[in-house]
Amino acid sequence: MNLQGSGADLERHRRCADRTIVDVVAHHGATWIKVVARNPNALLTSSLGDGEYGRRTILDQLQDMVECARCHPHLYKAPEVKVWTVLPVCKPLREIIQTVGAEVLNQEDVLAVSDEATEAVDDEGVGVDECTENFTALKLHEVPADAVLNLDVSSMIAYASALTNGRCHFRFRENVLTEQAENERRNPVRPALDELFSSRKLVCCQSAFDDFSTIVKVMAGPCESEAAQRLFERLEVVPDSPSERATALALRGKIRKRSKVIFGTGDRLKAVTVTANSGFLRAAKAQSVDFVAYVHESRALTEAKEVNATPI
Fold it and tell me: Which residues form the DUF5614 domain (predicted)?
């Protein structure tokens, strides 16, 4: 972006670079809340210019939050900025706050946020969410109904795998496959993917499609090949077109060129990437880049391995 453009652009990036304090982050990041204990009448007076010289008003603080929110999108949208006051807010102050792009929270909104916080504590440390400590991943119910889903290779493999299609009652020679079969019996992946895929548009980039097609030809059994073909019929294959922030990631550790292309293409499309590759997400987060993703457990193609496996 050309920062030598308008003064508004320069001011926005200056604000984004400054320290901005958010008192409460609600709705999984979609709402930022400023908590104010001052008397609303005093807030109105200072907002109208009758405050102490040089002292930042509530409008200054909210405007900073609004500008900062635009620089830190949640699900590709700027978080909503809201303010909560201890005492009721008069109509003039409410209208002034709205002019800077913020809103005043109603009492029912505060109760909803409180309920959400309680639910979040109750849900801590369950299943796949354990791998999201260092990065942000969506839960199934958090994926927007109109979201476009970008499938990576691991998600397509998991969808077609014999393990996720009712054939997980085996003990394989390979320990990793036996472990995946045990995990599938405890926590089936396919039902969640079916619910996720049911009414949403599915896309994958050309690189992911080519890689998965090769893997299916080389490693898949007949049933897995059929499952892959059914998935292909729903998929729209798009050209590789990674976003600038994905391209800028340094190649090290779990950051591989192909993963940058796959996740970056989803990022440019403003899609939710469906993946089992939590390592890439964690490594990207370490470089201060968050991708919008739904994470599931890893599953391999196992049908060809069943001939040497022990049924259980």
Answer: 20-123
**Residues constituting the chain:** 312
**Segments in the chain below pLDDT 70:** 1-18, 40, 42, 44, 46-55, 106-134
Tell me how far CA of residue 236 lies from CA of 183, 201, 290, in angstroms.
30, 8, 24
What does the mean pLDDT of the chain come to? 84
DSSP state string for 115-134: HHHHHHHHTTT-GGGGGGTT
3-state SS, residue 250? coil
Pair 216, 235: CB distance under 8 Å: no
What Å distances lie between residue 39 and 42, 43, 56, 92, 301, CA to CA?
Answer: 5, 6, 16, 14, 63
Residue 107 is predicted with a pLDDT of: 54
Distance CA 1, CA 15 (A): 16
> Rounded CA gap, 267 and 261, in Å?
10
The number of angstroms, rounded, from the C-alpha of 46 to the middle of its chain's C-alpha atoms is 39
Look at residue 124 in the predicted model and tell me its pLDDT: 41
Q: What angle do CA 151, 156, 159 make, to 5 degrees?
A: 120
pTM of the model: 0.72
Please give the pLDDT value at position 57: 79
Cα dihedral 211, 213, 218, 219 sign: positive
Burial 173-210 (b: 16+ CB within 10 A, else e): eeeebbebbebbeeebbbebbeebbeebebbbbebbbe
pLDDT of residue 63: 87
Three-class SS state of 231? helix
Q: What is the pLDDT of residue 112?
A: 46
pLDDT, position 6: 42
- Quick one: which H or E segment has residue 259? helix 257-268
Nearest to 311 by CA among 121, 167, 149, 147: 167
